[in-house]
Specification:
The chain is α/β, with parallel strands linked by helices. The protein has 2 domains: 383 residues, Rossmann fold; 100 residues, ANL, C-terminal domain (GMP Synthetase, Chain A, domain 3). A 9-stranded mixed sheet has the order 2-1-10-9-11-12-13-14-15. Strands 16, 17, 19, 20 and 21 form a 5-stranded antiparallel sheet that branches. Strand 11, helix 9 and strand 12 form a beta-alpha-beta unit. It is globular, with a radius of gyration of 23 Å. The C terminus is likely disordered. The chain binds adenosine monophosphate (AMP). Adenosine monophosphate binds next to strand 13, strand 20 and strand 21.
Length: 515
């Protein structure tokens, strides 16, 4: 099994189908795409001595050549190590070195100094792989299902990132599961890379190559709702992954421009909590285009999914409860909520989410201890806490490390965040525990207000008291303009803890007019 096989098959079946689009412009059809990938593989082998199984790191922003390079790497039987271009070059250098990459491909003419210092790897510009003489593709290097295709560095919200070994078999299972549980894909569809290809958004490429569909790379380097709207109107049938913050920005922009979502077929959201009020507003503004996925690098894209119909059907059974869940287990995996010993808990009880099946990673690269801690008896321990209802819908509570224990009682930040974000003046909120001599921990809320709105502690406190148990309500509010997020849009609770400790005095209500 080798993902490059999907490319060569599509090139044979639909050679003239548009494959790669730079903005709205088609720059390669499937035949050309396959030729370019084969030529890149040739160069990797001949000039750089790359052998099957060698790691090739990519440290550059999204572009059409990024996708060509990925397929070139697989064509040669090598392992892709995509690294988010928004990371600091020092962080990237660490990943290159950890992966033992033979080569690291960058976009700039001059490699950033820390990368040039990594001993194992040669730093090469992407220009080395552009405009090569394109011979007939031939066949990709044979690989087994158990061989690694993608070394996926975790976002490292806790400690050092770890290299998740995603095999060809994992990718095949993930792609099949997408067709069964998330969305159908046809040749007229287009996957838009609205987030870094190095992370979750990049994993979507496979299903669209299998179907000979279009790959679209927006011109803007950051998420630009107006460009997406223009591309949707021009290209039609756009599908893309969006983290909850991106959905929120798209919806805010659509409300201003009057965009109805026409031209967008599917928006898959996930990667972090989507609050009820946000998804309701999103569906009301953009229509029945949303599907939710719950996954993690360690079981890429594939733990649970909440379907388009369930999200959009307001009359559906227990609609609101289900909308607040992450859906049901993907068809190819088993999902259970377990106690500390791995025993399945009765429905409705909160415990750690475990998953087992063909999408679960082979392990962490060069890190047997972390692998042993994460995969026990074939079950991946996700580090997420959740509860399963009798119909199999899983509602996530929090990462186990984010749980707050106040006066001996568990408080799940997500529940308090849900309530706060439902307040009309609140744009986003993060809730965390702070050490307290009396209670062990107290609940602290960091809140960003909507532009032009103001709210103070009393208003938010009154809102919380009206909606959740008194002991769960924040004892302290801190107001910021925007929550700190990492390069993947995930709220950085570690950074918030630092902010709380060092910069923000208690009780500092402000209005957010300056946003
Ligand atoms: P990553 O491996 O960086 O993609 O992060 C995976 C983590 O993101 C999961 O373990 C969850 O904590 C979180 N996550 C992913 N999808 C969702 C979702 N749909 N809802 C809430 N949290 C999610």
């Amino acid at each position: 099994m080798n993902p490059a096989l999907w490319l060569t098959r599509a090139a044979r079946l639909t050679p003239r189908a548009p494959a790669l689009l730079d903005g709205a412009d088609t720059v390669a059809d499937y035949e050309e795409f396959a030729r370019r990938a084969a030529a890149i593989a040739g160069r990797l082998r001949e000039r750089y001595g790359a052998l099957p199984g060698d790691r090739v790191a990519i440290f550059m922003p999204n572009s059409v050549s990024y996708i060509e390079l990925l397929y070139g790497i697989w064509f040669a039987g090598c392992v892709a190590v995509p690294i988010n271009s928004k990371l600091h070059a020092r962080e990237a250098a660490w990943m290159v070195s950890d992966s033992g990459a033979r080569l690291v491909v960058t976009s700039g003419a001059k490699p950033p100094a820390p990368l040039a210092c990594v001993e194992c790897a040669t730093v090469v510009s992407i220009d080395e792989f552009l405009g090569l003489d394109t011979a007939t593709p031939g066949d990709p290097q044979q690989r087994n299902a158990d061989d690694i295709a993608w070394l996926f560095y975790t976002s490292g919200t806790t400690g050092r990132p770890k290299g998740v070994m995603i095999t060809n078999g994992n990718i095949a299972a993930m792609a099949m599961s997408y067709f069964v549980d998330v969305d159908s894909v046809g040749q007229r569809d287009a996957i838009l890379y609205a987030a870094p290809i190095s992370h979750g958004a990049g994993l979507y490429n496979f299903m669209f190559t299998i179907r000979g569909a279009r790959h679209v790379v927006p011109r803007a380097e950051t998420f630009d709702p107006l460009e997406i709207q223009a591309l949707a109107e021009r290209l039609d049938n756009l599908c893309f992954f969006a983290a909850p913050t991106m959905v929120r920005r798209l919806v805010a922009s659509a409300r201003q421009t009057g965009f109805s979502g026409a031209g967008i077929r599917t928006i898959v959201y996930g990667g972090g909590p989507m609050y009820l009020s946000d998804i309701k507003e999103a569906v009301a503004t953009l229509g029945a285009r949303f599907v939710q996925i719950y996954g993690q690098g360690e079981s890429p894209m594939t733990i649970c999914a909440l379907s388009r119909d369930l999200i959009a059907d307001r009359q559906g059974e227990r609609w609101e409860t289900r909308l607040g869940s992450v859906g049901r287990a993907h068809s190819c995996v088993e999902v259970r909520v377990a106690d500390d010993s791995g025993q399945e808990l009765p429905r409705g009880e909160i415990g750690e989410v475990l998953v087992r099946g063909p999408t679960v990673m082979k392990g962490y690269w060069n890190n047997p201890d972390a692998t042993e801690a994460a995969i026990r008896d074939g079950w991946l321990w996700t580090g997420d806490l959740g509860e399963m209802d009798t119909d199999g819908f899983l509602t996530l509570r929090d990462r186990s490390k984010d749980l707050i224990i106040s006066g001996g009682t568990n408080i799940y930040p997500r529940e308090v965040e849900e309530v706060l974000t439902a307040h009309q003046s609140v744009l986003e909120a993060a809730v965390l525990g702070e050490a307290d001599p009396e209670w062990g921990e107290i609940v602290v809320a960091v809140v960003a207000l909507r532009q032009g709105h103001s709210a103070d502690d009393d208003a938010l406190d009154g809102h919380c008291v009206a909606n959740i148990a008194r002991f769960k309500r924040p004892k302290r509010y801190v107001y910021v303009h925007e929550l700190p997020k990492n390069a993947y849009g995930k709220v950085l609770k570690t950074e918030l803890r630092d902010l709380l400790g060092h910069h923000y005095p208690a009780h500092s209500p402000t209005s957010n007019e300056g946003r």
